[in-house]
Amino acid sequence: MHSPLKRLRQLSPRTVGLLAALITVLIWSAFIVIARASASRHLLPLDIAWARIVGASLVLLPWGFWLNRQARLRGEHSGSMWSLSPLPWGVTLRIGFFGGLAYAVLSYSGFFFAPAAHASVLMPGFLPVWTSLLALGLLGERLHGNRLAGLAFIVSGGMLVGGSSLLHAFDGGSVWMGDLFFLSASLCWSTYSVISRRYGLQAVPATIAITCFAFFSFVPVYSLLAVSGAIPSHLLSAPASELLFQAAFQGGGSVVISGITFTQMIRYFGPVRSTMITSLVPGLSALGAVVFLGEPLGMHLLLGLSLVTAGILFGVRKAPLAKVSA
Question: How far apart are CA 164 and CA 243, in angstroms?
Answer without folding.
Answer: 34
